[in-house]
Amino acid sequence: MFWLYAGGNIILASFVLGSTYSESLGFIPAVIMTIVGNLAAYTICAWSAQKNVKYGIDEIVSHRPAFGYYGSVFGVFLILAITIGWTGILSSLMGSAGELSVTILTGSSGFAGEYYAYAIVGGIIIPIILLLIDPKIGFKLSNITVPIMLAFSIYMLIKLLSAENLAALLSFKATRETSWVFAFEAIFAYAVVWLQYIGSWNRMAKTERGGVWGTYIGLALAGMLLGIVGGMATILTGEVDPTLWMLELNLSVMAFICIIAGTITTITILIYSGAMSLLTVFPNLNFRIVTVLIALPALPFIFIGSLREAFDFILIFGAMLAGPYWAIILIDYFLLRKQKINVKACFDKEGPYKYFKGFNPIAIFSQIVGMIVWLFLGGWMTGFTFITSSFGMTLFNALGATLPAIIVSALVYYGLTKLFLKKYSFGDYRYSQKNLGGVLNEIK
Amino acid sequence: MAAIEKELLEAKKWANDEDDVVNDIRKVDHWLLFGIGIMPLLVFSIWYYIVY
Fold first, then answer.
1. How far apart are CA A298 and CA A85, in angstroms?
2. Cα-Cα-Cα-Cα dihedral of A384, A389, A394, A399, to 10°?
3. What is the pLDDT of residue A444?
């Protein structure tokens, strides 16, 4: 499991993550923040992995005990929204990499709009064609591109640690525009956004312990390595886009070809995962049509002002929606159900996880509360004045936004569920308490 | 496409029964995860506030 998850995190976006806070914190604090931030953030992924390893069920199916049979469709919406966002961001990286590769190879200045041409062809059209030929081609390609990207990242780290670079890094004066809380918020939001993808892989693990620790160590180590490299490169060059700092650091065209191959691979895997999540809920849909429908909405992201803006956009909205959602699922699984769920009921529309017309109102209410908390604390990051609060900003500098939103939504869900369970029997919690497999409900 | 259909059909079958579960995770794993994950961040945050 280690290599599967490490490979999942060896993508260009992980470089960008390290770049987002390195100049604000400075070299040493940024490196330490990258290490401790990744160690902390991926604990939530490891804990989330356990339920899927234990029961061998897909991520979306495992959401049904908490959100209800139809309520878990919100998870599909999240997966699709985030997949579209990532596809757009990675496509824009394809545009820069293609533009620079052609310039280096041919020595020509290129043609007008070539960035968009490379982004659309490389980031959208080629992955669609590959997926139409073989839906699982991304996993086959990753066997080649992940080791190459890993080797490339280690090479980059060694190159960046030269005496000259090290002197420049140590003498760099931090801008202090943001505090360590913002850096952790970015790392945590990035980890939360990954939750939906890793779940579908966990069911393939053979043991709980292997799945949980493989998820944790794989994701955290890859995140640290790429985050440190990206952060150091940004301090040295002032560029956030990996293709631009690679150009400034005089890397050969081979680096760009690695980037292009790695990006195409990642996009195909992301679109495949998104399509499979949708097909899990709506099995009658056509895979090819779903693939195209997921890839095409990514186009607007290519035209967004800068890579940094697009990256911030996906992190902000991904964390706000996904943070409280997974908090509810985890608190339900670990504390309320004591790690025991009724698997058969997860596939039964009329079963105990039907709640109210397929939705669990307590979970939906708790999700909304968590989102309100996030907007109060982190609303200023969206740029909308009507959700910008100066008190919220002050609190953000001490607490962040995603972690408090997670804690509040989990507490609200736990408290309300306990309260209503005193009066009513719902959600098959008796199964978890007595492990009688829903028999009590059938008798009643 | 056949592979997709097969995977979707197998999705339900893949679900483990309670007897099939390799339930080898222990409380110590959760505490270890908490210790490795959360404690360094707490130490770093205190250090950062003191130094900066």
1. 6
2. -70
3. 37
Cα distance from B50 to chain A (closest Cα, Å)? 13
Phi and psi torsions of A153, nearest 5°:
-65, -40
Which residue would you say has higher pLDDT here, B10 or A329?
A329
| ipTM associated with this complex | 0.78
**Whole-number Å distance between alpha carbons of A274 and A79:** 6
Per-residue pLDDT band at B10 (split at 50, 70, 90): low
- Report the SS3 class of residue A102: helix
Flag whether residue A219 sits within 8 Å of chain B, measured between CB atoms.
no
B3 has a pLDDT exceeding 70: no
- C-alpha–C-alpha distance, residues A64 and A347, integer Å: 9
- Contact at CB, B48 and A180, closer than 8 angstroms: yes
Residues of chain B with Cβ-Cβ distance to A47 below 8 Å are 30, 33
Model pTM?
0.83
Which of A42, A206, A208 shows the shortest C-beta gap to B23? A208
**The two structure tokens encoding residue A398:** 């001490």
Cross-chain residue pair B4–A279, CB shorter than 8 Å: yes
For residue A191, give Cα distances in angstroms to A195, A212, A319, A323.
7, 15, 9, 10
Q: Read out DSSP for A267-302? A: HHHHHHHHHHHHHHH-TTS-HHHHHHHHHGGGHHHH
The C-alpha atoms of residue A387 and residue A377 are separated, in whole angstroms, by: 9
